[in-house]
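Risk register update: the risk of archive-format incompatibility is retired. Evidence:
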Amino acid sequence: MKHYYLLFFFIALIASCSTEPVEDIEKDPDPVDGLEACFQLSNTVLAIGQDLEITSCSEGAVSFLYDFGNGETSTEQNPQTEFEAGGEYTITLTVTNEEEETDVYTKQVSVLDAESFYIYPVISEGFSAIPLELGIHPISGNIYYIENLEDEEGPGGTKFYYKELDESYTLSSNYLADKPHESNSAFVNFYPSGNMNFIFARTLASLYGTQEVTYMSDWGFVNAINSAAKHSYGVLRDGSNWYYFGSTEDGGIYKASIETRNSSGDAFDVSLHSFGAADAMIGDLVVRESGYVAFGAVFSKNDSDPRLTDYKPLLIFFDGSFNVTSHVIYNESVLDTKLDSANDLNGSYHLEKLSNGNFALYANGEIIVTDNNGALVYREYFEGTSNNQALTALEQGFIISTEGFIKKYDNSGALMNELAYAGKYMPEIIDWDNDLFFVAGYEEDGKVKLLYGACDEDLNLIPIDFGESAQ
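Archived output:
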């Protein structure tokens, strides 16, 4: 892979990504009255393997013959095709009327290697970089991500950095903290004061906790807190309060917890919930009309190997005061045989309410779709997929990442489309400027490097445009 910025190339391509045939058009120099060959393309710049939809706008034709320029042809009126190699291709349509007269129309498409759509930020030799969170800064509007940077060949150790991209694609970087034990989870909360509260997982085989560091808006250090009895996975803002959710040890058992903080970051209430004799945690929390819904798990945390047993996904329904109104434990899950350490609880948990009222739950390589009461609709497990993957809801359906693929499903869990890509780690997919943007980690020569990419809701890769000032 080539590790340099491709912005000039991308900007030149943006103008060509139209669904209208605006260039490279050739017409028959001797047209036939009442007969006109014409077609439109879903894209004029596309990646290898990306579907190209062709829609005829011809008049007076009774038969159609498309030559795609790659040795393939079609007699369908509105065909679909894809290309297996990069290059410039001329698509030619020949139409025929009842009198067997013909007319011809052509247009060119550019087919790029999929890697040409990505940007590869420079990662120093000997280092691995894993993205742990992706978002949009609430004040600047810039894209940010949290990076776990590991020196695999020298004495530098592993550290966390905050990375931010401005509209001219200038990348800023700020050191956050050294890595605390194992960590595959991170998030940040931006308070009205400008303070930034960063939370990192802190786990070992027998440890299930959190590291918390806070900085001012000018990156002045405020404080750091390490906990061996509390693990936070995320934060939800609702009104003037911030709800930090996760798990807290209480009387020798870990309980699903929601800690309430005010706008200054001061905690003033905690809600703890257990489900039978098992330990429990909350990995994601969303608002609904009558209260809240949480996605997490029940499990048994042991003092000896295996440190973790009997893991089962959990969906919890709360009223507006965080009283449990109902819950569902998904005994059909295969994860009780896949997880055996507190480190396995250390990663991305996603819950989305879908447009038809269903819920999509994703963690540890397992996607679960339920109805609005939590009844199982669909479940699938992706063997070998790391617990650092994305889920995002669409107007109709949702998208997840797995190792090597981005997949689109409808609201019931039926696979609609998938995009092969080189990535292995992708914590989030965000809606940015009406495109789906992601930062992913991929493996190269035994190290993890980063790529930036974007696609539309149909998983067509698109060049990244950071605005007119991008250079």
